[in-house]
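We now fix the convention by which a protein and its fold are recorded. The integers have meaning only within a learned vocabulary of local backbone shapes. A complete example follows; check for yourself that the lines match position by position.
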Amino acid sequence: MLESPPALIVFVNELRKSIRALFLTIIASTVLVFFLAPRLLHVVQSHLAEKLYFFSVAGPFLAHVKLALFGALYVLMPWVIAVFLKAIGKPFQVTRNQLFGFTFFTCLLFYAGTVFCYYITLPFGINFLLGFGSEELKPVISVGRFVNFVTIFILAFGVIFELPILMVFSAKIGLVTRKFFSRNRRYALLLIAITAALLTPTPDIVNMLLMGGPLYLLYEAGIMILLVMRIP
């Protein structure tokens, strides 16, 4: 009797089926979105009252390329998520209906996280950091670094909002149990506090709570979802 291949090999083989098409689509979409990059820059700069500067000849061009890549990834994220979940679910025999549910809620939480970051956390962070300026300290902000800061931070919020999906999936495949999450709330709270301290753009308690609070609520939501789904 032949043994089934390791889960990692099944995952990689399944991922290879779609990764090339996905990569080419992201590149093509980046080229198309590049022409909208000036408008995207205006959008990400809306929370910043200061002007942006560049310190190299290629600075503005590279900033627009980064914005175009960010825009392409943001729009294509449902496909990226679907490809990844299909590949990771293959070794564990995840059904098509289950895969659709995981993909839908993963996309929903990702976009919820990015919107929450853009409208709530990011303005507080920028205002706090620029609050250290004075008559002697005038901000001269690089367009490249500002684009890096905003886009990476928004994407990071989208990823960390996937916590309930990670909890449900890990319990569904038998990696951990619902009781494990329930028993270890104090450790989860500690890890969430550390994560919030590391990822928030400012060290103040307000911004830490703006990330840590929703993360803990998502953790509790994950436990409730497991309870409703009757996953032990």
The chain is about 75% helix and 0% strand. The beta strands are 52-53, 141-142. The two ends are 32 Å apart (CA to CA). The CA atoms of residues 172 and 231 lie 7 Å apart.
